[in-house]
Write a structure and sequence with these properties.
The complex is a heterodimer of chains A (225) and B (215). Chain A has ten helices and four strands. With 225 residues, chain A is mainly alpha-helical. In chain A, helix 5 (136-159) crosses helix 9. Chain B folds into two domains: 3-83 and 206-210, Glutaredoxin (3-Layer(aba) Sandwich), CATH 3.40.30.10; 89-201, Glutathione S-transferase Yfyf (Class Pi), Chain A, domain 2, CATH 1.20.1050.10. The chains are: A mainly alpha (225), B alpha+beta (215). The interface between A and B is medium-sized, with 32 and 32 residues. Chain B: One of its GO terms (cellular component) is cytosol.
Chain lengths: 225, 215
């Protein structure tokens, strides 16, 4: 099936964690999209044309026929609402209690997992590439914080297959981008590998087709139709 | 059975309480002594394993993370009280967008200000002046974007009051009162008008009347 110029556009580099989050969601939902690059090294995200669609100068931004949106987790929720019948129908729950549990763990990701893991992703994966000196204090503090959060996760994942329940959901998906970088970092990998249930969960969620397609986009490949 | 909200004294639980009042949902509250570390003890951790406030209990169902709780009740009681989610999927999308902006762009710097300016002195911890300066600068930049947005729409998601605006009430109260940084709002004409509008809603006035801030 030939892909027509997709009505759905995602703006941002695929290697950005927040952009990856949205791409993984679109792929889970079988929603075709066009990925439009934003040259962050040249500061494109802080310049007027981009600021018109994302006034905070952050990636990603999202457009479809009806709306322009930003904030990756808001975009994911919108995509799931808008395309409820497509692709993975359980992704954002099929009843209110399932959805509440997914929102609870999405918020836990956003408030407890994201801050320390984002700091570590920047310090360990991006700072060296950008020739920025690593902040040892920030690395130490964030490692400690993240370790405590993963203790809670390990207990939960000993009782439940996925974070919000028996089905893979947006809550698990939301962790993929940051965890991917950390699992591939010698410093941070032990945080995941030494927790048996977190380890099991990571192996399962990271082997999803949608995530592997995102990684293809990281490598600069285009997706086969 | 009635919805139970833990920790009404504190700001994050107030986010839930103002929503329940807007939605005309009956609730009761359970005192949690945050200053004595009650939220870090085993009894509480059974309900909220991250040791954070609030948590709600609704019959035998437990839910935590205030913004998740907001979404659940706003959706469950969509046809009762104030509509806080918008009327279409697109309006809902904008509500989600600005709720996420509050969570990721607004909340972190304002939380840092509250912790360093108000809480650290009480606990005998040193305040980090650098964090205070950086947080105030960040918050100012976020408020500049709000000023631009609110010059075009009455509320953040559009011309209707929503979860996105509501979510700003508890911590902005600290900014305007205890932290004495009201100039950050007052210097911005549209943000100022928006703050006066949302903070004068009967629901928020009720919260302030019933549950005093601990600081």
């Amino acid at each position: 099936m030939a892909a027509a110029a997709a009505a759905v556009k995602v703006y941002g580099p695929p290697m950005s964690t927040a952009v990856s989050r949205v791409l993984a969601c679109l792929l889970e939902k079988d929603v075709q999209f066009q990925l439009i690059p934003v040259n962050m090294a040249k500061g494109e995200h802080k310049k007027p044309p981009f600021l018109k669609i994302q006034p905070f100068g952050q990636v990603p931004a999202f457009q479809d026929d009806h709306i322009t949106l930003f904030e990756s987790r808001a975009i994911c929720r919108y995509v799931c609402e808008k395309h409820g019948e497509k692709g993975n129908r359980e992704l954002y729950g099929t009843n209110p209690l399932a959805r509440a549990s997914i929102d609870q763990w999405l918020e836990a990701e956003a408030q407890s997992f994201n801050p320390p893991s984002s700091t570590l992703v920047f310090q360990l994966a991006f700072a060296p590439r950008m020739k920025i000196k690593q902040d040892e204090g920030a690395i130490r503090q964030s490692t400690e914080k993240l370790a405590k959060v993963l203790e809670v996760y390990d207990k939960r994942l000993g009782e439940s297959r996925f974070l919000a329940g028996d089905d893979f959901s947006l809550a698990d998906l939301s962790h993929l981008p940051n965890a991917h970088y950390l699992v591939h970092s010698p410093h941070a990998a032990p945080l995941f590998n030494s927790s048996p249930n977190v380890s099991r969960w990571w192996n399962e969620i990271s082997s999803r087709n949608s995530w592997n397609k995102v990684l293809q986009l990281h490598r600069g490949a285009s997706l086969s139709p | 059975m009635v919805v139970k909200v833990y920790g009404p004294d504190y700001a994050n639980p107030k986010r839930v309480i103002v929503c329940l009042i807007e939605k005309e949902i009956e609730f009761e509250t359970v005192f949690v002594d945050g200053f004595k570390g009650e939220h870090k003890k085993p009894e509480y951790l059974k309900l909220q394993p991250f040791g954070l406030l609030p948590v709600v209990q609704d019959d035998d169902y437990t839910l935590y993370e205030s913004r998740a709780i907001l979404r659940y009740y706003a959706e469950k009681y969509k046809n009762q009280g104030t509509d806080l989610l918008g009327k279409t999927i697109e309006e809902r999308g904008l509500v989600e967008q600005w709720l996420e902006v509050e969570a990721h762009n607004y909340y972190p710097p304002i939380y840092n200000l509250v912790m360093n300016i108000l809480v650290s002195p009480l606990l005998g911890h040193p305040s980090d002046q650098k964090v205070i300066e950086e947080s105030e600068e960040k918050l100012g930049k976020v408020l500049d974007v709000y000023e631009e947005r609110l010059s075009k729409t009455k509320y953040l998601a559009g011309d209707f009051f929503s979860l996105a605006d509501l979510s700003h009430l508890p911590f902005t109260h600290y900014l305007m009162n205890q932290m004495k940084k009201e100039h950050m709002v007052r210097e911005r004409k549209h943000v100022s008008a928006w703050w006066d509008d949302i903070s004068n809603r009967p629901s928020w006035k009720k919260v302030l009347q019933l549950y005093k801030y601990p600081i």
